[in-house]
């Protein structure tokens, strides 16, 4: 046995020296025999089809009729049709990929075709990131990292530090991605590059509103999933905002596995026990320092105990005696790396909760390849699939700790300044950037998307809902904002069929061959094209929000009052942005049924003009722009519009078009997304007309203007549950 390695923390910055020193020789050089023809896509290599069948689900293996028959006999199988049917939860947290970076072109999710994206005052959107080096407009759009022709899969990591992340955040403007991360930040993959990941999303449920927990690097985000916080009040080691040295105890607060242990819930950490955080060929062994339980004092205290019952905490936590075995040189043999996990699945000894931690080479952390990550994920899943009793009672959660430095366009939730545990030195802890989460289970089959807000504490919340064991560290605000993942499941209608996933081993050959290709590069000047998503429908899970916002204009004082409401059962984070005169930055509000919020714009300070937007989850957007006409003017048309959310079987958005003046007004209603409706509605003086706006799968996006010459333009977008 070798002693515990003393490794420096993982690099978080993008300095060439830091990146080169850390990542040098971490990916083995390819053999000539492993070369894959240049220009061949990963999808062609695996023979995976497209997404044409997403809307109906893509189950294969056991037929749909058989799956329904299984669901019809729940009672005969001893099942309850509830969360109690879950017997095992497997948690696999991979490394450093953003949602748009992986799934920006996936159909049916909030991706590159999103028309409710954050708008900037100059008329551009968050997709058009400022880039002073570009002479074709000074903006950089998302661009494909083409694995067929470039060394995209092995591209190096970007800045993902606390400071770099907050530079990109820029007080909620999220408009400094290129300056903080470099041009590669806008790079993304498609189905042709990562076919396994896309197929898994097509077969099961993907969350398109799942965020990393903080704006910063790996370790603090991981400890959110294992402990519920990075900022336990008064605890030694808090706040955690950077990557400490691996394997040394620096944190002194309780973790969720300790609560499971006390409650008698069986759990274990599955990670290779060789070398620790190795480099070169040994980068495919060990745990890359990604098991954060090594960093908590309680596990080292347990390791030092002479009481076997106490020592069990350290053993289940993956500290395996506090030492590492020497390298076997078998890191590229996946069944060696995952031997313990596969044995537990095959033997029926998998505990109730399993944390699976990959070595660097299999973790997808740039420059480690998504191809290797796909094979690692697939091996984990196949171990579960091949044991029918295990598959029919298991949930596998596959998420990513943070985004590395890769761009994502969805504005994360933001706590009000001063919220306990959510600010450090005046900067918000989170939420960080959106990252992937795929929910694999018989209760999440069929190509669904869940747009409820989640973060890494949601994994703990799901375990809470299932085991009844409560975590003590999650902040009160996060408990309001983040869901518990139960909306991802339909426990009453399981589908026990197993998808036919191609052998992913050929991807390893492709990844190794890629290092012979040229490095990735941003598009040539004048060659930029905005990427679009694949065209296919995707079913959406119901979520617990019902958001609305309207304004009232006081023509005497010149003040515009925004009222934000949410009649759903869960709170939402909304952010208000000024579009004129004031600095472009977010003002956050937490809005619940019990706590509506308001915002005031004083047009007397802006020459009578107003223009501001409010953004919330699941495509919620309002924008209100116009000019306040002083109260003494009554002989003109005075437009206003309010929206009423009508839920239920006849759900709609009911727009009330008001004319508080004497002259007739022509309102023009134009669909900005989801449909092509265009209506002109005349409203006479001192009258109101109502219009029920067409919904498409519950979504709406309509712009209302008036012919009054006052710049009146209101926009209403969102979803009606």
What would a concise description of this structure say?
The chain is of the alpha+beta class and 721 residues long. Strands 7-8-1-9-12-6-13-14 form an 8-stranded mixed sheet, sandwiched between helices. Strands 18-17-20-21-28-27-24-25 form an 8-stranded antiparallel sheet, with no helix packed on it. A 3-stranded antiparallel sheet has the order 15-16-19, with no helix packed on it.
Structural overview:
The longest helix has 16 residues, at 370-385. The protein is 20% helix and 20% strand.
Keywords:
721 residues, alpha+beta, eight-stranded mixed beta sheet, eight-stranded antiparallel beta sheet, 18 helices, 28 strands, 20% helix, globular
Secondary-structure map:
Elements: H1 16-23, H2 42-46, H3 64-72, E1 88-94, H4 99-103, E2 129-130, E3 139-140, E4 143-144, H5 162-169, H6 177-181, E5 187-188, H7 195-203, E6 205-207, H8 218-227, H9 256-263, E7 267-270, H10 297-304, H11 308-316, H12 334-337, H13 339-347, E8 353-356, H14 370-385, H15 388-391, E9 394-400, E10 423-424, E11 427-428, E12 437-440, E13 448-450, H16 457-467, H17 476-481, H18 505-514, E14 539-540, E15 547-554, E16 559-566, E17 572-578, E18 587-591, E19 597-602, E20 609-616, E21 620-627, E22 639-646, E23 652-659, E24 665-671, E25 678-683, E26 687-693, E27 699-706, E28 713-719
Parallel strand pairs: 1-8, 1-9, 4-5, 6-13, 7-8, 13-14
Antiparallel strand pairs: 2-3, 6-12, 9-12, 10-11, 15-16, 16-19, 17-18, 17-20, 20-21, 21-28, 22-23, 23-26, 24-25, 24-27, 27-28
Helix pairs in contact: 8-16, 10-11, 13-14, 14-18
């Amino acid at each position: 046995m070798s002693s515990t390695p003393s490794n420096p923390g993982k690099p978080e910055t993008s300095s060439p020296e830091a990146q080169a020193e850390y990542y040098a020789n971490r990916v083995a050089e390819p053999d000539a025999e492993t070369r894959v023809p240049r220009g061949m896509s990963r999808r062609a290599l695996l023979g995976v089809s497209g997404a044409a069948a997403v809307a109906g689900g893509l189950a294969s293996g056991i037929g749909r009729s058989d799956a329904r028959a299984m669901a019809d006999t729940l009672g005969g199988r001893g099942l309850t049709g509830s969360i109690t049917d879950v017997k095992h939860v497997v948690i696999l947290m991979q490394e450093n990929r953003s949602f748009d970076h992986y799934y920006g072109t996936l159909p049916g999710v909030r991706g590159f075709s999103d028309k409710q994206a954050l708008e900037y005052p100059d008329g551009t959107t968050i997709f058009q990131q400022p880039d002073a080096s570009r002479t074709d407009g000074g903006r950089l759009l998302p661009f494909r990292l083409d694995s067929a022709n470039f060394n995209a899969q092995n591209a190096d990591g970007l800045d993902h530090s606390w400071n770099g992340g907050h530079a990109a955040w820029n007080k909620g403007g999220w408009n400094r991605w290129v300056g903080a991360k470099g041009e590669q930040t806008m790079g993304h993959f498609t189905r042709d590059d990562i076919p396994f990941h896309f197929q898994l999303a097509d077969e099961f449920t993907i969350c398109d509103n799942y965020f990393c927990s903080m704006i910063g690097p790996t370790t603090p985000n991981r400890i959110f999933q294992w402990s519920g916080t990075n900022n336990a009040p008064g605890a030694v080691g808090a706040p955690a905002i950077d990557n400490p040295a691996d394997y040394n105890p620096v944190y002194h607060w309780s973790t969720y596995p300790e609560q499971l242990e006390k409650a008698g819930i069986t759990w274990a950490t599955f990670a290779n026990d060789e070398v620790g955080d190795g480099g070169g060929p040994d980068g495919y062994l060990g745990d890359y320092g990604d098991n954060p339980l090594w960093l908590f004092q309680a596990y080292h205290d347990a390791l030092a105990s002479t009481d076997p019952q106490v020592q069990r905490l350290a053993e289940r936590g993956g500290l395996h005696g506090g030492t590492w075995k020497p390298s076997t040189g078998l890191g590229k043999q996946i069944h060696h790396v995952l031997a313990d996990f596969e044995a537990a699945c095959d033997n029926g000894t998998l505990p109730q909760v399993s944390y699976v931690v990959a070595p660097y080479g299999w973790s997808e952390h740039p420059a480690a390849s998504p191809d290797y990550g796909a094979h690692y994920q697939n091996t984990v899943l196949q171990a579960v699939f091949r044991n029918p009793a295990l598959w029919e009672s298991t949930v596998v959660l596959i998420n990513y700790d943070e985004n590395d430095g890769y761009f994502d366009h969805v504005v994360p939730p933001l706590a009000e300044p001063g919220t306990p545990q959510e600010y450090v030195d005046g900067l918000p802890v989170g939420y960080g950037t959106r990252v992937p989460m795929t929910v694999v289970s018989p209760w999440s089959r069929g190509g669904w998307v869940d747009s409820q807000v989640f973060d890494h504490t949601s994994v703990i919340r799901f375990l809470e809902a299932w085991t009844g064991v409560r975590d003590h560290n999650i902040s009160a605000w996060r408990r309001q904002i983040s869901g518990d993942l139960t909306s991802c499941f339909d426990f009453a209608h399981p589908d026990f069929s197993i998808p036919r996933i191609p052998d992913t081993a050929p991807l390893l050959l492709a990844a190794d061959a890629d290092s012979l290709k040229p490095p990735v590069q941003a598009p040539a000047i004048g060659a930029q094209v905005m990427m679009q998503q694949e065209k296919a429908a995707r079913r959406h899970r119901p979520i617990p929000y019902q958001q609305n916002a309207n304004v009232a204009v006081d023509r005497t004082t010149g003040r515009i009052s925004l009222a934000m409401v949410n009649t759903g059962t869960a709170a939402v984070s909304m952010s208000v942005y000024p579009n004129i005169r004031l600095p472009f930055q977010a003002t956050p509000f937490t809005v619940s049924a019990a706590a509506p919020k308001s915002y005031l714009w004083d047009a007397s300070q802006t020459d009578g003009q107003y223009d501001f937007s409010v953004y919330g989850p699941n495509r919620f957007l309002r924008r209100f722009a116009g000019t306040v006409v002083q109260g003494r003017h009554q002989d003109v048309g005075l437009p206003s519009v309010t929206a009423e959310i009508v839920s239920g079987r006849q759900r709609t958005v009911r727009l009330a078009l008001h004319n508080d003046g004497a002259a007739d007004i022509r309102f023009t209603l134009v669909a900005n997304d989801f449909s092509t409706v265009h209506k002109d509605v005349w409203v006479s003086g001192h009258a109101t007309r109502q219009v029920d706006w067409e919904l498409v799968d519950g979504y709406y996006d309509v712009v209302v203007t008036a012919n009054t010459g006052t710049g009146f333009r209101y926009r209403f977008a969102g979803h009606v549950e």
